[in-house]
Design a protein that fits this description.
The chain has 3 helices and 8 strands, in the order H-E-E-E-E-H-E-E-E-E-H. It has a 4-stranded mixed β-sheet with strand order 5-2-1-8, with no helix packed on it. Strands 4-3-6-7 form a 4-stranded antiparallel β-sheet, with no helix packed on it.
């Protein structure tokens, strides 16, 4: 006969095996859920100034302020295993003229939680009550994952290792996302179609050029007028 300890080990081993098998099935269920995200982003205003972009900056450098508009639909990314979606917008530009866009900086981001993960959000009681009410009786609120921004100011300024950004050509804004499931692996914006997972439609702005810095004499002339 087996001792109590041996029996306990057998039960625990069986339990962990079953739990692992169920977790694997849950994770694999992501691949049968269709993903058809789409986004439309456009640049609204760009300014390049010279100063200290951060309070901890030790020297002055050129940095850019960007305003953009974004209409995106990530509702297809939500299903019963989705915990939250991390959406972010980046700016890309080349280091050399006519070169590849080897510089990239995040200018805005946001987290969209599923109804079952609303308690994880750091928001006020009024906003939380509205979220819970909108999700009541629904597995996933249809409005979840839909973003509508107009003349949105970037959260983060663009800087460059060289300290110079003015008159930089071939700059674009890109929309990215990261799906964080309850069980399974993190998935980022796919570059190729995989089964029912489609490449994001749109999500890329028109190419634009960062403006030149305003000269001091121009500012003084405007002030006198």
């Amino acid at each position: 006969m087996h001792s109590t300890i041996v029996r306990g080990q057998n039960v625990f081993g069986f339990f962990t095996s079953v739990a692992f098998a169920i977790a694997a099935l849950i994770a694999c269920s992501d691949f049968i859920a269709p993903r058809t995200p789409k986004a439309d982003i456009s640049i609204k205003d760009v300014q390049v100034v010279r100063g200290r972009p951060h309070y901890y900056s030790t020297k002055k450098e050129e940095y850019a302020h960007i305003k953009f508009s974004l209409d995106a639909d990530f509702s297809s990314l939500f299903h019963w295993n989705t915990k939250q979606i991390f959406v972010y917008v980046s700016a890309s530009w080349p280091s050399e003229p006519d070169g590849e866009r080897d510089n990239e900086a995040v200018i805005w981001d946001s987290i969209i939680t599923s109804p079952s993960a609303d308690h994880l959000q750091n928001i006020g009681p009024a906003a939380m009550k509205k979220l819970v009410k909108s999700a009541k009786g629904k597995s996933v609120d249809p409005s979840r994952g839909k973003i509508h921004l107009k003349n949105q100011k970037a959260k983060y300024q663009i800087t460059s290792p060289t300290g110079k950004l003015a008159e930089t050509d071939d700059v674009v804004l890109k929309v990215h996302y990261n799906v964080q499931p309850w069980v399974g692996i993190l998935t980022w914006t796919p570059q190729l179609e995989f089964g029912k997972w489609k490449v994001m439609k749109g999500g890329l702005s028109k190419v634009f050029t960062l403006p030149a810095l305003k000269k001091k004499d121009e500012k003084e002339g405007k002030a006198k007028v």
